[in-house]
Amino acid sequence: MEYVGTALAETTMPQISPLGGEPIERADAERLAGVLKALADPARLRLLSLIQSAPEGEACVCDLTAPLGLSQPTVSHHLRILTEAGLLEREKRGVWAYYRLVPTAIATIADLLTPPRKRATKKAR
Amino acid sequence: MEYVGTALAETTMPQISPLGGEPIERADAERLAGVLKALADPARLRLLSLIQSAPEGEACVCDLTAPLGLSQPTVSHHLRILTEAGLLEREKRGVWAYYRLVPTAIATIADLLTPPRKRATKKAR
DNA sequence: CTACACCATCGATCCGCCTGCATATCAGCA
DNA sequence: TGCTGATATGCAGGCGGATCGATGGTGTAG
Predict the structure, then answer these.
(1) Res A18: pLDDT
(2) DSSP character at residue A25
(3) Domains annotated on chain B, with CATH
(4) Residue B24 in contact with residue B16, Cβ under 8 Å?
(5) Which nucleotides of C are covered by protein (CB under 7 A)?
(6) Lipid metabolism: is it a keyword of this entry (chains A, B) (predicted)?
(7) Whole-prediction pTM value?
(8) Is A8 in contact with A86 (CB distance < 8 Å)?
(9) Over the stretch B69-102, which tens digit does the pLDDT of each residue have?
């Protein structure tokens, strides 16, 4: 499995929404589904949450195995999935590998899911 | 697999975000992951898109099999997944079953994914 | 009443993924 | 160099899901 780059890169992730005007293309649907699949796992959601709420907004593997109740290889596996999806970034400092959220990654997904707001007639709530 | 009701119901879907302040609970993570899992499929994303862009914002199964290139049982299966996740609603009229988007369902998911903008100090947009 | 069209369900198959154990890799240290 | 600890990778078992063909149920038309 070679590294395919962050699936959330602007060039790979289309500017379309599944709720947009035009029917979504097959290839676009597969790309978006790929990123959502990385999110659609309880362990990975908790990992994102744990990392985000960590002291410096970063955490190493050894800090994450205990709260999750999963083995270290399994945690590394999930972190890899999230990193390849473009949701996490990894920094190796000494023996430890620190993971942190990619700032706007999840917000980008949220935007893709948000309807294209035809706010012409829509009053602010 | 018995029907568990709309996973997006206010009572079942917590008001937490994976990017919220507190680490997400295990049960909450599983519920959110369940809804995301329903979204994380190319066929289902295209179904949502097709239905949304249909003339009246609704479509029956017979209109959806051809564009997707999937068999009718498979399309029914996906529609069932989306409906049980609370993303679609079904209305039977005669022999046809019309599906339409649940208005704010996907927006709710998007909100859950959106960082909780610590609005204590942040002025309301 | 019979035939037909639309849809849901069932059963079976195939494939991908979550998980853990074992092992490899790498950095720091004596 | 050799040892220890933190991560990553390989491998395999087991479960869930995506798909299709066949079947059943139900309106509608004739």
Answers:
(1) 61
(2) P
(3) 8-112 (1.10.10.10)
(4) yes
(5) 5-11, 17-23, 26-28
(6) no
(7) 0.85
(8) yes
(9) 999 999 999 999 999 999 999 999 999 999 999 9
